[in-house]
Write a structure and sequence with these properties.
Elements (H helix, E strand, L loop, with lengths): L4 E5 L5 E6 H9 L3 E6 L4 E3 L2 E3 L2 E6 L14 H7 L13 E5 L14 E5 H7 L26 H7 L16 H4 L1
Parallel strand pairs: 1-6
Antiparallel strand pairs: 1-2, 3-6, 4-5, 7-8
């Protein structure tokens, strides 16, 4: 998440998206959005300087269908805080099926974890007990984060000025800080 990213809120203050600075300024200039929080640094323009937005709110309600949290490599890594669930390493990560596919292990939230290559090679096609390995925590499907993807949500929670506007999910309280 870049310093130039802006949190975009719906008219009811529900997080809609994270957009770039140019898009946010355009929405404000067109009168479609209003500035809620300023960024610490301003913008230099040819006609002077402007206040740079950090959080903007749409002036009208944007109706969107409730999206589904998709199972993807990035979502699994974000859920596990980009940490190997066997050794705690944050380097050279991949995805591991806790119960291997050949043993009937499904390709689901409850069976996928972030895993470093070293642990993945050590575990091989075995279950964790067979490989004499232990998971740091049991994998489970996270609750849905409205409109923001899980990786975006976790990065957004690290921005102090945005945290007030984002819903809090207790299952990520250990991950965020």
């Amino acid at each position: 998440m870049s310093v130039h990213d802006v949190l975009l809120l719906n008219a009811n203050y529900e997080p809609l998206n994270v957009c770039n600075l140019r898009r946010a300024v355009t929405l404000i200039m067109l009168g479609k959005a209003e500035l809620i929080e300023e960024a610490p640094k301003g913008l230099s323009t040819s006609s002077g300087s402007l206040t740079a937005p950090s959080v903007v709110k749409m002036r009208y309600h944007v109706r969107r269908p409730m999206p589904e949290l998709r199972l993807s490599r990035h979502s699994v890594l974000a859920r596990d805080n980009y940490t190997c669930q066997y050794c705690g390493s944050k380097r050279d990560l991949t995805i591991d099926h806790v119960v291997p596919r050949w043993c009937g292990g499904p390709h689901t939230w409850d069976n996928l974890v972030a895993c470093c290559r070293k642990c993945n090679l050590k575990k091989g096609d075995k279950t964790p007990p067979q490989a004499n390995m232990k998971l740091k925590r049991r994998p489970k499907r996270p609750h849905y984060v409205p409109y923001l993807s899980l990786p975006k949500y976790l990065r957004a929670m690290q921005r102090e000025e945005w945290a007030f506007y984002l819903p809090v999910f207790n299952e990520f309280s250990l991950v965020v800080n």
